[in-house]
Write the structure tokens for this entry.
Amino acid sequence: MNPASLHIASEAARAVECIVVGAGHAGLAMSHCLAAHGTEHVVLERGEIANSWRTERWDSLKLLTPNWLTRLPGCAYAGDDPDGYMTMPQVIDFIAGYARRSAAPVQTRTTVESVRADGERYRVVTDRGDWLARTVVLAGGACNVPAVPACAAGLPATIESVTPDRYRNPAQLDTGGVLVVGASATGLQLADEIRRSGREVTLAIGEHIRLPRVYRGRDIQYWMAQLGVLDERYDAVDDITRARRVPSPQLIGSPARATLDINSLREAGVRCVGRLVGIGNDRAQFSGSLASHCAMADLKMNRLIARIDEWIAHNAAGEPVPEPERFDATRIDARPELVAPLDGSTIATVVWATGYRADYSWLHVPVLDRRGRLKHDGGVVAAPGLYAMGLTFMRRRKSSFIHGAEDDAQDLSAHLANYLNASRRRVA
């Protein structure tokens, strides 16, 4: 953006029609769509473009989605490995390159310290000065702060505690066994990597989503797209609150397009136990619900596979599609362990793969519920001119994925532009 286009509201604040907080893929997608509407805006980023991808991911991480699915408004993957999975450096290059091609008006190294109402506008206070805007887009996403359970406070001082945003590779961990808490994509990937480093690993398993990486010759994401699962809207599900809490699927991006699940981890020597329910007397305590959680995950996976088979039967008749497959049920011990000593040997480190939550400590507008969650209707926040991007199942099931930002940004940028036009008519 040309700085000359910003008029000075006062000596203390610059004015613009819209401020986007966050220059990750969601904020940049919104910026692209705002520019298409002719909406004057600026994108404020506390670090560098794609900052979370640069600073809060482990070394070996790859996207869970195949390259052919990686796109943003006006930009799609154009490389020579469509069935591969981007590494973190590749993701950073993709997002940074997108920002350059879009000529996104990003101000890096600008930390937003507070957002609050100021008459009919919002005052955005940063460590590099104040801004005033009629609209603000909260595009920091849902993964700002690791969601560590309260029982973590009971860990003995001798036990190392690590969250995924600070984990880089097994070499940084203390010697001794590792307890990984959580069995979604992050938990399984870290348990697998740490086990391969030679450490004994215990995996605490609660509710999870089991999926094969490839089914009938295609990436599972292809079939989910064909079924319309990824495009399911927030206002078309029975319980959106529940849907937004569904864990991420047990997937890993690898050149072999391998399936990573509890069975494969057990074969690698990972000890599998139930959900962590408490820590006390220098012991970790696990629930006896492992069998039921695994049975439910198997049931849901098989239902999805049946839907895929039905879709193929009705829509791909005569095409060369491999025959239907069936997968072994999740295997668990007849009597899984219910306790494990936190003695620095059996378990010396706990890795909390227990998800994230959004951080709105800087948002001083009454739009949070009693649990600190943002109140919004498909990204339209419960305050005039306030919007969100990048949240889990925000408008569609794919909202938190890179490719999910495209449709959401198009919808919300149009809503925002209409809001600004209505505001101008009221003033006129």
Q: What stands out?
A: Confidence is low (pLDDT under 50) at residues 1-11. The chain has two domains: 3-144+358-427, 155-352. Residues 32 and 64 are 24 Å apart (CA to CA).
